[in-house]
């Protein structure tokens, strides 16, 4: 495929506007355009390749192309191409068109990889809203919702909790009140993709780029199909015994919505490891407000006199479960921070060893 540089830039911008392209992005991309690269939004990544939407060189209409991501694939996991990224594409690269660079991300949903490693994995990039899906067909796991909220707040996007499968229960509003209590400042919606309940409100809450996260079986693929107005995702039956579904979505995939904006559906997350930052404090804003009322600014919230947190635990204003959840997530963040510091220290040590070795070699050569 060759690129017609004479094609009106306004046509190119129009082709990508439905995918989130803006005048600000076009301005940032200008130096890359001068180098002969073209903008595209990554819609799917798979084993060194990706699908991306760009403006067709001949018609100016949106077109999906297959690209090689390996030219930027030697970066760490966080900086590798991800669904939602804006890419600079070299259409003349051989043996196939390739991603030459990525534009800086405005937001990114980053979780810790599974297991004992402390590396981060980007689930979606340049997201405006994070939909946290939880099924009403089983009792919501409040601790898991808090964990998802911390992940969403840390991304820089706006979280919204979506309680799905409202058609299966009679007490949806009571459950919503319980969830709202652990989601201060966050919109909590009750919806049913089957009956359409709450879907209009949900659509109004998802302008721009929206990412959908949650466990398997909570109805993410069904929600995606309902919002897209088409069967763009395969839906598998959920086991009625425990309401756990199979992983119907195996990769992050970006879908254009008919009313404008795009939706990124993600695979069901068994583990939701946090990757540090201020997301925990934002998810537990009520506890942060209590801490400000403590007598001592460095209160550890244990046995210190005048501790507002302990007082709230004693009178039941702050549930013990929520406090325990907060402390658990704080400890995870502290562990991530310590591992990150250790990696940085190790990298600095390797750098100085290399410099010292080089200097010794240079001095030895000079003496000869």
TrEMBL record:
<keyword id="KW-0694">RNA-binding</keyword>
<dbReference type="GO" id="GO:0046872">
    <property type="term" value="F:metal ion binding"/>
</dbReference>
<feature type="binding site">
    <location>
        <position position="299"/>
    </location>
    <ligand>
        <name>Zn(2+)</name>
    </ligand>
</feature>
<comment type="similarity">
    <text>Belongs to the TRAFAC class YlqF/YawG GTPase family. RsgA subfamily.</text>
</comment>
<keyword id="KW-0690">Ribosome biogenesis</keyword>
<protein>
    <recommendedName>
        <fullName>Small ribosomal subunit biogenesis GTPase RsgA</fullName>
        <ecNumber>3.6.1.-</ecNumber>
    </recommendedName>
</protein>
<feature type="binding site">
    <location>
        <position position="301"/>
    </location>
    <ligand>
        <name>Zn(2+)</name>
    </ligand>
</feature>
<feature type="domain" description="EngC GTPase">
    <location>
        <begin position="125"/>
        <end position="270"/>
    </location>
</feature>
<keyword id="KW-0378">Hydrolase</keyword>
<dbReference type="GO" id="GO:0005737">
    <property type="term" value="C:cytoplasm"/>
</dbReference>
<keyword id="KW-0699">rRNA-binding</keyword>
<dbReference type="GO" id="GO:0005525">
    <property type="term" value="F:GTP binding"/>
</dbReference>
<feature type="domain" description="CP-type G">
    <location>
        <begin position="117"/>
        <end position="272"/>
    </location>
</feature>
<dbReference type="InterPro" id="IPR027417">
    <property type="entry name" value="P-loop_NTPase"/>
</dbReference>
<feature type="binding site">
    <location>
        <position position="307"/>
    </location>
    <ligand>
        <name>Zn(2+)</name>
    </ligand>
</feature>
<comment type="function">
    <text>One of several proteins that assist in the late maturation steps of the functional core of the 30S ribosomal subunit. Helps release RbfA from mature subunits. May play a role in the assembly of ribosomal proteins into the subunit. Circularly permuted GTPase that catalyzes slow GTP hydrolysis, GTPase activity is stimulated by the 30S ribosomal subunit.</text>
</comment>
<keyword id="KW-0862">Zinc</keyword>
<keyword id="KW-0479">Metal-binding</keyword>
<feature type="binding site">
    <location>
        <position position="294"/>
    </location>
    <ligand>
        <name>Zn(2+)</name>
    </ligand>
</feature>
<dbReference type="Pfam" id="PF03193">
    <property type="entry name" value="RsgA_GTPase"/>
</dbReference>
<dbReference type="InterPro" id="IPR004881">
    <property type="entry name" value="Ribosome_biogen_GTPase_RsgA"/>
</dbReference>
<feature type="binding site">
    <location>
        <begin position="164"/>
        <end position="167"/>
    </location>
    <ligand>
        <name>GTP</name>
    </ligand>
</feature>
<comment type="subunit">
    <text>Monomer. Associates with 30S ribosomal subunit, binds 16S rRNA.</text>
</comment>
<dbReference type="GO" id="GO:0003924">
    <property type="term" value="F:GTPase activity"/>
</dbReference>
<dbReference type="InterPro" id="IPR030378">
    <property type="entry name" value="G_CP_dom"/>
</dbReference>
<dbReference type="GO" id="GO:0019843">
    <property type="term" value="F:rRNA binding"/>
</dbReference>
<keyword id="KW-0342">GTP-binding</keyword>
<feature type="binding site">
    <location>
        <begin position="214"/>
        <end position="222"/>
    </location>
    <ligand>
        <name>GTP</name>
    </ligand>
</feature>
<keyword id="KW-0547">Nucleotide-binding</keyword>
<dbReference type="InterPro" id="IPR010914">
    <property type="entry name" value="RsgA_GTPase_dom"/>
</dbReference>
<keyword id="KW-0963">Cytoplasm</keyword>
<dbReference type="GO" id="GO:0042274">
    <property type="term" value="P:ribosomal small subunit biogenesis"/>
</dbReference>
């Amino acid at each position: 495929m060759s690129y017609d540089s004479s094609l009106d830039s306004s046509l190119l911008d129009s082709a990508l506007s439905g995918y989130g392209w803006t005048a600000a992005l076009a301005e940032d991309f200008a130096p890359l355009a001068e180098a002969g690269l073209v903008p595209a939004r990554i819609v799917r990544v798979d084993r060194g390749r990706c699908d991306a939407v760009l403006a067709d060189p001949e018609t100016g209409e949106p077109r999906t192309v297959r690209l090689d991501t390996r030219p930027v694939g030697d970066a760490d996991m966080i900086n590798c191409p991800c669904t939602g990224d804006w890419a600079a594409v070299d259409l003349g690269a051989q043996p196939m068109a390739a991603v030459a660079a990525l534009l800086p991300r405005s937001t990114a949903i980053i979780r810790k990889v599974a297991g004992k490693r402390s590396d981060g994995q980007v689930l979606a990039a340049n997201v405006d809203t994070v939909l946290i899906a939880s099924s009403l067909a089983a009792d919501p796991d409040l601790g898991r919702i808090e964990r998802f909220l911390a992940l969403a707040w840390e991304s820089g996007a706006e979280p919204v909790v979506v309680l799905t499968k409202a058609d299966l229960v009679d007490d949806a509003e009571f459950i919503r009140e319980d969830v709202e209590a652990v989601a201060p400042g966050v919109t909590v919606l009750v919806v049913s993709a089957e009956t359409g309940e709450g879907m209009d409100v949900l659509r109004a809450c998802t302008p721009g780029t929206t990412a959908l996260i949650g466990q398997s079986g909570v109805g993410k693929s069904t929600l995606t199909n309902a919002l897209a107005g088409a069967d763009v995702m395969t839906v598998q039956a959920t086991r009625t015994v425990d309401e756990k579904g199979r992983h119907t979505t195996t990769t992050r995939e970006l879908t254009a919505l008919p009313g404008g904006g795009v939706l990124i559906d993600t695979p069901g997350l068994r583990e939701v490891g946090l990757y540090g930052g201020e997301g925990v404090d934002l998810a537990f804003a009520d506890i942060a407000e209590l801490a400000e009322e403590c007598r001592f600014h460095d209160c550890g919230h244990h046995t210190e006199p005048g501790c507002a947190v302990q007082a709230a635990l004693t009178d039941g204003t702050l549930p013990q479960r929520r406090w325990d959840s907060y402390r658990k997530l704080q400890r995870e963040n502290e562990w991530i921070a310590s591992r990150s510091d250790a990696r940085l220290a190790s990298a600095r040590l390797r750098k100085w060893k290399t410099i010292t070795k080089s200097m010794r070699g240079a001095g030895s050569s000079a003496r000869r």
